Amino acid sequence: MAGAAGTKTSSGTAAAGTGRRLVIVESPKKARMIAGFLGAGYVVESSFGHIRDLPKGADEIPAKYKGLPWARLGVNIDDHFDPLYVVPADKKAQIRKLKDLLKDADELYLATDEDREGEAIAWHLLDELKPKIPVKRMVFHEITPKAIQDAVGNARQINDALVDAQEARRILDRLYGYEVSPVLWKKVMPKLSAGRVQSVAIRMVVDRERERIAFRSASYWDLDATLDAGEGKTPRLFPSRLVSVDSRRIAQGRDFAPTGELKSQNTVHLDESTATALAAALRDSRFTVRSIESKPYTRKPYAPFRTTTLQQEAGRKLGMSASQTMQIAQRLYENGNITYMRTDSVTLSDTAITAARAQVRELYGASYLPDKPRVYTSKVKNAQEAHEAIRPAGEQFQTPAQTGLSGAEYRLYELIWMRTIASQMKDAAGNSVSIKIDAKASTGENVEFTSSGRVITFHGFLKAYVEGADDPSAETDDRETQIPDVAEGDVLPATEVIASGHETKPPSRFTEATLIAQLEEREIGRPSTYASILGTIQARGYVYKKGNALVPAWLAFAVVRLLEEHFTRLVDYAFTASMEDVLDDVAAGNQQREGVLGRFYFGDDDLEGLQSMVSDLGDIDAREMSTFPVGPPDSGIVVRVGRYGPYVEGPDETRANVPEDLPPDELTVDKARELLSQPSGVEVELGNTPDTGLKVVAKAGRFGPYVTEVLPEDAPKSAKPRTGSLLKSMTLDTVTLDDALKLLSLPRVVGKDPESGEEITAQNGRYGPYLKKGTDSRSLQTEDQIFDITLEEALKIYAEPKQRGRRAAAPPLKELGEDPESGKPVVVKEGRFGPYVTDGETNATLRKDDSVDTISLLRAAELLADKRARGPVKKTAKKSPAKKTAAKKTTAKKATTKKTAAKKSTAKKTTAKKTTTKAAAKKS
Fold first, then answer.
1. pLDDT class for 474, splitting at 50, 70, 90?
2. Is 482 left (phi over 0), alpha (psi -120 to 50) or beta?
3. Cα 251 vs. chain centroid, distance in angstroms?
4. pLDDT at 850
5. Are 438 and 399 in contact (CB under 8 A)?
6. Which of 198, 270, 346, 678 sits at a 20 to 30 Å CA gap from 576?
7. Cα distance between residue 826 and residue 820, in whole Å
8. Distance between CA atoms of 121 and 48, rounded to whole angstroms?
9. DSSP secondary structure string, 299-329?
């Protein structure tokens, strides 16, 4: 770490001042909030984030360093990994302003965030401003009057070890990116980037897609019986599932390997004919209760949020991306609504526990309050620095309605508030029941069915908060399933025995929430960086979203293959995780920054260094790195990653572009042959336009087949041919000149809105047909409407409320009949989280083992009845904050250590050298 005279002490020679204290924070909003709490005698100003960094390009390198072999890196690898820090052009004016303010101050408080990044910003400010007055480091994890006053009274020195850890991370990432990225430029595609954690995250997404490509589905069948418990029982009818035949367990999805084969031969694999025959043979059988097992059910509350759990839950419940969650949380923190949002800790302060327990008593009553406060400890390895969990700020928590928040900020605050309140409530309690039922088929088989249920007798914390699930078919903690009160030996007739078919499914793609969970589970990277990593891998085209799922582009496959084969250690999961341990050791003062960087870059007897990896690459076959077989080797078809995107190539070297939105696991041999039937570069001449005489051709393009005019060779450069994508009903083989002329005529003017005078047009877009009026677009249901919709029909569409991100309601997938309870027609529909059944009032998602093709009315009625029993999702009212009903939906940093004297002495030589380097850089 580069040094400065003020770094090692919190006092200096006081300059003649005005009795004012200068407080520097990162953001203007934070500055305004804190200034209001401190009052007269304090000037609070913002640094606008980082004020210095390694140079981002050649234009930022000071003249005296240009031409030096290490200048491109911004790190002198031969001189203690000495970094060259520069002040970006857009920060120089702010630095001048801070220096001017410093002239009139008697004391400087550096009040940047309390994590490593904030500690580094404080150190850079100190090193750049070079104050000659006493300097103090001020930290807090919430922006409230008491927290700020406490921070002023408990100021400390800058923690050099934390600064060293941040600097080591920054230099590691610079070395990785600047040394490995050029290899990708040469061997895969220009302008690509590699990153120490970013590349490993991409590998995770690619590995999951590889599993999906290799996956082979298996079909299996089972039986569901509906049993009659008799008159007076509640419920009278209840479901039971076949578990064994002649003491051998029935195979379920978990019993099959990804290859589609059974893992063990000790299970019974029912096919359609066997299952159907067995169902028929059981319809008149006696079903006898063999045993009943009842156990107490207890569920403890979830811990308060930390960064990653907040990102995951906001994704599940609110549909927010990780970056959106962090942006909104940042605003809530700076506004004084919540505590610091970058934390690994689940600990609550005594003040927070008292506030949470007070609200539990007020909103839910004393019966929901445990005798003793609940204390949570972090299970995250090397939880960073001493933060508190993410919670509502202050000594008394505001309910969501009391905050005055709205929109996304309200919803995220409500989530945090609910989770915090619920963490201090009593356990949920109840009973779980499992019933084993025997029957004998008319064909002689002895079978066993089982039914299970759960009744919650005391909801406890579930009254306030229920955690979401990544799998929409998974049971939530508040789900109840009633089983009638039956006794051993009871004979229960079957009203229905149904054979149901299922297919095993490939492993689910990662969502942002599940990828974050996987990164954290493998201890890769810091939770505070996950949002930016997810944003980067999507922004740079390695990964894209299909719904909520993260899909790797073929470009990601090429990059990961090159890194796996030639930089194996750099994308190894265990190695990347171990680097976090090393950086934590630096933060704790147990390892030296220079030693860590030296081993990573130069290597040692046991470890090859990065310098050697990039210097001794041998011959890398760039074409081979970007070539992947499609199907078995004898197909002769490959997909390649080219400069303009991926394309398939057949045995005869015919090529065709791969649509950018086609996931890799959907590029089958059949799909590839379909694409090759419309090869790239082949033009189908359709004729000439009657108005201009220009030739019209049909082509296969990067974004699908299209028609276009062919301009003459002497056409001006500014001239652009009309083009139009083919409709879904058209192919290159069937499109005609008349079709092409209709497409080239788009957009079609439908007419003008009589009220606004704006023109309404009908167009064909990437996501289908739509209307456009100014900036307001509305989806059309069919492609034919583009050409025949009238102005009157268009105005009717615009008169309806806009459904953001949604098309018109799709027809049901299946009609089942009338629900026995509501008497309304039950249908199966496709929803955001998969198929579900509905009677128009209640919706219930199909479970893992349910199938659209085989689901019966009885099974649908059971799902709907279960959903009704659980009750509607409760909403927190945004009015009347004093009412307890407002909470019914609802649930509602440790001090860093000083650097030791020993650490100071070991860094002395490096510090002196760095100071010289940076001082020279600033003069140039």
1. low
2. beta
3. 34
4. 75
5. no
6. 346
7. 10
8. 10
9. EPPPPPB-HHHHHHHHHHHH---HHHHHHHH
| Contact (Cβ atoms closer than 8 angstroms) between residue 293 and residue 378 | no
Sign of CA dihedral 598, 599, 601, 603: positive
Residue at 665: amino acid letter? D
Mean pLDDT for 235-240 is 94
pLDDT tens-place string over residues 676-691:
887 766 788 899 999 8
Alpha carbons 649 and 176: distance in angstroms, whole number = 34
Question: How far is Cα 327 from Cα 316, in angstroms, rounded to an integer?
Answer: 17
The residue type at 756: S
* Helix (H/G/I), strand (E/B), else coil: 56: coil
Picking from 289, 9, 249, 277, the residue whose alpha carbon sits closest to that of residue 131 is 9
Q: What is the pLDDT of residue 167?
A: 96
- Say what the pLDDT of residue 832 is: 60
Pairing of strands 237-245, 219-228: antiparallel
Residue closest to 327 by CA, chosen among 313, 343, 341? 341
Mean pLDDT across 520-535: 89
**Confidence class of residue 715 from pLDDT cuts 50, 70 and 90?**
confident
**Which runs of E-coded beta strand occur in 459-570?**
491-492, 494-503, 543-546, 549-552
User: Among 108, 138, 158, which Cα is nearest to 897's?
Assistant: 158
Contacts (Cβ under 8 Å, ≥6 apart) of 227: 237, 238, 239, 240, 287, 437, 451, 492, 493, 494, 495
Structure tokens given for 563: 């890194």
Catalytic site includes residue 376: no
What's the predicted TM-score (pTM) here?
A: 0.75
Please, which pLDDT band fits residue 889 given cuts at 50, 70 and 90? very low
E strand or H helix at 225, and its extent? strand 219-228
DSSP letter (8 states) at residue 800 = S
Q: How many CB atoms sit inside 10 A of residue 832's CB?
A: 12
Q: Name the amino acid, one letter, at 249.
A: R
Q: How many CA atoms lie within 13 A of 709 on its CB side?
A: 20
Dihedral-angle region of residue 541 (phi above 0 means left; psi in -120 to 50 means alpha; beta otherwise)? left
340, 364, 410, 770: which is the annotated catalytic residue?
340
d(CA 11, CA 144): 27
List the one residue out of 45, 54, 98 whose CA is nearest residue 73.
Answer: 54
Q: Edge-to-edge strands of the sheet including 834-838?
A: 814-818, 825-831, 834-838, 843-845
Helix, strand and coil content of the chain, in percent to the nearest 5, comes to 35, 20, 40
CA–CA separation, 753 and 438 (whole Å): 70
Instruction: Check: CB of residue 512 under 8 Å from CB of residue 315.
Output: yes
Torsion of the alpha carbons at 482, 485, 487 and 491, rounded to the nearest 10: -80
| pLDDT of 55 higher than 60 | yes
- The model's pLDDT over 362-381, given as tens digits with 9 standing for 90+, comes to 999 999 999 999 999 876 65
Is residue 224 within a helix (H) or strand (E), and if so which, with residue range?
Answer: strand 219-228
What's the mean pLDDT in 396-411? Answer: 94
User: Where are any strands of DSSP class E within 424-478?
Assistant: 428-440, 446-458
Query: CA-CA distances (angstroms) from residue 64 to 2, 884, 920, 924?
Result: 19, 68, 8, 7
Query: In angstroms, what CA-CA distances link 58 with 88, 172, 842?
Result: 12, 20, 62
Closest alpha carbon to 704 in 650, 639, 627, 768:
768
- The predicted pLDDT at position 42 comes to 95
Distance CA 337, CA 397 (A): 9
The confidence band for 526, taking pLDDT boundaries of 50, 70 and 90, is confident
The set of residues, in sequence order, having a beta carbon less than 8 Å from that of 361 and lying 6+ positions away, is 369
Pairing of strands 834-838, 825-831: antiparallel
